[in-house]
Design a protein that fits this description.
Elements: E1 3-7, E2 10-13, E3 23-26, H1 29-35, H2 40-47, E4 57-64, E5 71-78, E6 83-84, E7 96-97, E8 101-104, E9 108-111, E10 123-128, E11 133-147, E12 150-156, E13 161-164, E14 169-172, E15 175-178, E16 187-191, E17 196-197, E18 205-207, H3 209-221, H4 235-244, E19 250-251, H5 257-270, E20 271-276, H6 292-297, E21 302-309, H7 311-323, E22 332-341, E23 346-361, H8 363-371, H9 388-391, H10 395-409, E24 425-431, H11 435-451, E25 460-461, E26 466-467, E27 473-480, H12 485-494, H13 501-526, H14 537-542, H15 547-554, H16 567-574, E28 575-576, E29 581-593, E30 596-603, E31 610-612, E32 615-617, E33 621-630, H17 631-634, H18 638-648, H19 663-672, H20 674-679, H21 685-688, H22 707-716, E34 726-735, H23 738-744, E35 750-757, H24 760-781, E36 793-794, H25 798-833, E37 843-848, E38 851-859, E39 862-871, E40 874-875, E41 894-897, E42 905-910, H26 913-918, E43 921-922, H27 932-938, H28 941-952, E44 955-957, H29 961-966, H30 975-985, E45 988-1001
Parallel strand pairs: 3-4, 9-17, 44-45
Antiparallel strand pairs: 1-2, 2-3, 4-5, 5-39, 6-36, 7-30, 8-9, 10-11, 11-30, 12-13, 12-29, 14-15, 16-29, 18-19, 20-21, 21-23, 22-23, 24-27, 25-27, 26-27, 28-29, 31-32, 33-35, 33-37, 34-35, 34-45, 38-39, 40-43, 41-42, 42-45
């Protein structure tokens, strides 16, 4: 591999072999030569070949060989097409107000804060941007956090509102855009259907074995038995078939009930149930009359349910029938000539159309629908009502029945004069002798609509009656939805249509159009323009006005409509695809104070979005504390201080914490992070404000953590650990950037405390447990692995999501661990220097070392969402980045760089150049040059400790000499070279150098 110097302290490895991008190394001349001695550059080259990687693979000057991914390595992957590797974890939490309504499967919604307990029970709606269609998908994770500053409230011209944190992306014509970046010039995607609130259905039984037996017996008594001589068609077989599919007993809470409510509603409109013999189909249009010839032959009969409609709509019904366990036929098509006979004359339509249909040949399915209340035979000749069980169902199940019935029977949303809508109309045809039943049925439908707050006209009987093939007279009875704007909007938003894509799409668009038109009228009135009110069509009709008189009243256009788009023009300009999505312009954006929880969900789809309030929306570390003390105060008591801390803070490989946790409490801490510790009385709320991610990564799921990892984490909680983990008493030796140092709280001569530790065996075990399933995924999908150690999983995979959820637990564990250790360290200072000393010990920052996050960076001149892996590297954002704590947003992020034992540590600050050159990243420490085994073979721990005291008066307290030997100063790179390299490269600036006084090691 060829490496060339391209800038001061920046080297480039050009693309070769499987590399997808070049690699950059930040190092001076001395460091670059050391990096070439092991597999570090080979590992960096492998990282550069991972799928979805962008720009460059990076190596910090403290980089060295690691497990697959080099320590000190940085890589950013496309948030959609990229991967996650066990070198880091990540998440993207951008939150909404808890009152935000999330649209879910079956046309229901829940407030996002209510989803916490129902994540595994619900599917959410999302937009497939490739097809501009709306689909259902599982919710993977529920996340929440506190927001104590502000959120953004966005209002569109059609009146929709959304309240989100500034970093929450919203879908615009220019793609996903963070709320804080949206302006009045933006246009956002909306989906106006809102449905009704979800209520958990009761466990009450709708159907049981007795109900089915009663139905079959009733049919048999009418010589309409669905049972034949074959055992396959026997009552027992039908019952067994239904039980096998989990349909007996059928409860309101059964997962099949919503689908059955929709299918039943459609059968009431464009479906029929008939008998079929082996040789011939009868009653394709619901006629249950059977010829004497068939009866005499005693041929086997089975139930057949037919469905008629548009091909695309029928396909959706077929898919739902499959979900409840039955097999529909393919979709048939035939030419159909229309003919209507009345008492006056016969009417034949001049055109012939294609009719689409399919059938379900199953006595079990037919029996189920009949038992649920479906009419049997020709519906015009049958008396039937809305099923009793449905009248007692939750409102959202009633909506499914109504919307499917209206999808089949109601007139589509359409305008009478290009601007104003015809009243949505539905009705039924009945024999003249069934007039009472027709009125009773439609009265029930009106009552159901009334439960949604929707007003309708009185039931009307159409004057011209028809004559069917048996020369019986049938009449039509109909009802209309009142066309007052609020009433229409309520109907189209809450009920709408199922199994009719075109009607549903136009209903969504009609909601937007009506609202915009009403707003236009209000604005015109405010400007004192003359506006002629339209007469309400339904009321005019009900008052005896003829259609001709109504049309004359509608001929004069409103002043507001003379300058307003027609509905067809609106659809052409604003509709997105055929699912009901539309563009809506921004009317108002404002930042509002907020002090409450905010929430987010993650879905199991690469589109990474959901519909919220009708908008389309998508660890080791270090902490540093200041003290009020000077070196002069601390030097005389450095041994006493270190010994006290050593006693108060458990450390060492096998150390066990002072806090005894149950498994449940460990899970709570893994989810809550430092909030858990603060609630228990450890540390302060002010500490949290100076932690990366405020000490808590959302989306942690302890259910993804193995019992083995929990067992290790439970015993080690609140311990320092061993290896390169330490607690160090330091003095600010020199300040290089006074203004920044002052903002951080650093002052020359003042003593500081640095804590370096992570997630202990808990995090290590989580990482170990994640490797086998990720490697197994690689085998199953034949993923290219440059090195088995560099295992990765595509971000959309279950393996990746499970790993991220578990690793978030490890990150929170680490944040909490350092928080508790800092609390005990403060107590140690009080013991040595007097009570009250700890009151002035302030946290500067707590920064993570091994982590990956979803961030927005500029790549090739365009902003791009990335998942940035930082393994043994530190985020180093300059001022202005919204991710920074409020205290540092105008100064830049503190970067804590611990040196090796006995050498200086540094505080840096992010440099703007680092965003472009390194995704806002810098080094994390000195970086090893010697393995631990080699260091132990080379040094004696007691001699290293003695040398540190004799030469520099640095006191070291450790569990055993071996720990000191493996961390000897010459086992690491020169920390001065490391930090000078990142400064020379321009990715971060040196603020201050800290010299050690005492070290506590495990």
């Amino acid at each position: 591999m060829q490496i060339k110097k391209i800038d001061k302290a920046i080297w480039e490895m050009e693309k070769e072999g499987q590399m997808r991008v070049p690699a950059h190394i930040f190092a001076n001349e001395r460091i670059i030569e050391g990096v070439k001695k092991d597999k570090t550059l080979q590992q960096l080259q492998n990282v550069a070949g991972l799928p979805g990687i962008v720009k460059h693979a990076l190596l910090m000057p403290d980089g060295h060989e690691g497990y697959g991914f080099p320590i000190g390595g940085v890589a950013a992957f496309d948030a959609k097409d990229g991967v996650v590797s066990p070198g880091g974890v990540g998440y993207d939490i951008n939150c909404t107000d808890g009152e935000t309504k999330v649209l879910l499967q079956h046309g229901v919604y829940l407030k996002i804060k209510e989803l916490e307990e129902m994540v595994n029970e619900q599917k959410t709606k999302f937009v497939d941007f490739n097809e501009h269609s709306v689909k259902n998908v599982d919710i993977l994770y529920f996340m929440k956090r506190e927001e104590r500053s502000h959120i953004y409230e966005i209002k569109t011209k059609s009146g929709l509102r959304l309240r989100v944190t500034g970093d929450h992306p919203i879908y615009t014509k220019n793609g996903m855009k963070k709320a804080e970046m949206i302006s009045l010039d933006d246009v956002v995607a909306i989906y106006s259907f809102s449905g009704v609130q979800y209520v958990k259905p009761p466990e009450e039984i709708i159907l049981d074995t007795e109900n089915i037996e009663e139905v079959l017996e009733a049919l048999k008594s009418k010589k309409q038995s669905l049972k034949g001589n074959s055992a396959q068609r026997s009552v027992r077989q039908i019952l067994n078939n239904l039980k096998k599919r989990g349909l007996l007993p059928l409860r309101y809470s059964s997962p099949q009930t919503p689908y059955l409510a929709k299918i039943l509603g459609y059968v009431f409109g464009n479906g029929s149930i008939s008998l079929r013999t082996k040789s011939q189909d009868f009653g394709l249009f619901g006629n249950y009359q059977i010829s004497d010839t068939i009866k005499n032959k005693k041929e086997n009969k089975e139930g057949v349910v037919w469905f008629y409609g548009n091909e695309e709509d029928l396909e959706r019904i077929r898919e739902d029938i499959k979900k409840i366990g039955f097999t529909p036929s393919r979709i048939y098509k035939r030419l159909k000539e229309h003919k209507i006979s009345t008492h006056h004359e016969d009417y034949k339509f001049a055109h012939i159309e294609i009719e689409y249909s399919f059938k379900v040949s199953s006595s079990s399915f037919a029996s189920l629908l009949i038992a649920l209340g479906a009419p049997v035979g020709l519906k015009t000749t049958q008396a039937y009502l809305v099923p009793k069980w449905l009248m007692k169902a939750p409102l959202w199940i009633k909506r499914l029945f109504l919307a499917a019935f209206f999808g089949a029977e109601m007139s589509p949303p359409a305008t009478s004069d290009r601007y104003n809508f015809y009243p949505p109309t539905f009705g039924i045809n009945k024999l003249e002798g069934l007039e009472v039943n027709a009125v009773e049925f439609l009265t029930q439908i009106k009552e159901l609509l009334g439960e949604f707050g929707i007003e309708t006209t009185p039931i009307m009987k159409v004057e011209n009656c028809r004559i069917n093939e048996e020369q019986n007279t049938t009449c039509n009875y109909r009802v209309q939805v009142l066309t007052r704007p609020k009433n229409l909007v309520r109907f189209f938003r809450k009920v709408s249509f199922e199994y009719n894509i075109k009607k549903f799409r136009d209903a969504c668009l009609a909601v937007n159009y009506i609202r915009l038109k009403q707003k236009s009228k209000i604005l015109n009135k405010a400007k004192n323009k003359t506006v002629e009110p339209y007469a309400d069509v339904n009321e005019s009709y009900a008052n005896g006005n003829s259609p001709r008189e109504i049309c004359a009243m509608l001929s004069t256009k409103h002043a507001s409509e003379q300058c307003f788009l027609s509905f067809s023009e609106y659809k052409e300009k604003y509709a997105i695809g055929s699912a009901g999505l539309a563009w809506d312009e921004i009317d108002e954006i404002k930042k509002v104070p907020f002090n409450d929880w905010v929430y987010d969900i993650t879905i199991n789809d690469e589109n990474h979005n959901f519909i919220a309030n009708n908008f389309v929306v998508s660890n080791c570390g270090v902490r540093l504390l200041t003290t009020p003390l000077t070196e002069k105060d601390v030097r005389p008591k450095i041994r006493q201080l270190c010994d006290t801390i050593f006693k108060d803070v458990p450390s060492g490989v096998g150390s066990e914490g002072r806090i005894k946790l149950s498994h449940e409490e460990l899970d709570e801490a893994a989810v809550m992070g430092v909030d858990w510790a603060i609630e228990k009385g450890y540390g302060t709320k002010e500490d949290k404000e100076h932690c990366e991610e405020y000490g808590r990564m959302e989306g942690a799921d302890p259910n993804k953590v193995t019992p083995t990892a929990k067992k290790r984490g439970k015993s080690q909680f609140g311990t320092l650990g061993a290896g390169n983990h330490f607690l160090e008493i330091q003095v600010v030796e020199k300040v290089f950037k006074p203004d920044v140092a002052k903002a951080f709280g650093l002052e020359e001569g003042k003593v500081t405390v640095m804590v370096h530790c992570g997630s202990r065996g808990y995090g290590h075990q989580i990482c170990s447990d994640s490797i086998p399933p990720i490697l197994n995924l690689a085998r199953k999908k034949s993923l290219w692995l440059p090195d088995p150690e560099l295992a990765y999983a595509p971000l959309e995979s279950k393996e990746a999501q499970d790993y991220l959820a578990a690793m978030r637990c490890a990150v929170n564990y680490a944040f909490t661990n350092r928080h508790i250790i800092a609390h005990w360290t403060r107590e140690s200072f009080d013991k040595v220097f007097g009570k009250g000393t700890s009151d002035e010990m302030k946290l500067i920052y707590d920064v993570a070392h091994n982590i990956a996050k979803f961030e927005e960076h500029v790549v090739d001149g365009k902003k791009q969402n990335l998942i940035v892996h930082r393994k043994g590297a530190t985020r180093a954002f300059p001022k202005g980045r919204p991710e920074l704590p409020r205290a540092y947003r105008e100064i830049g992020q503190p970067v804590l760089i611990p040196g090796s034992m006995g050498t200086a540590s540094y505080v840096l600050v992010g440099n703007p150049k680092g965003l472009d050159a390194a995704f806002g990243t810098t080094c994390h420490g000195a970086g090893r040059t010697m393995s631990r085994g080699e260091a132990i073979r080379t040094h004696r721990g007691d001699m290293v400790a003695k040398d540190l005291w004799d030469k520099n008066k640095i006191y070291v307290r450790a569990t055993e000499p071996k720990v000191i030997a493996e961390e000897a100063p010459d086992a690491y790179k020169n920390i001065d070279d490391v930090v000078q390299s990142v400064q020379d490269a321009g990715i971060s600036d040196i603020v201050a150098r800290l010299r050690p006084l005492g070290v506590v090691k495990g």
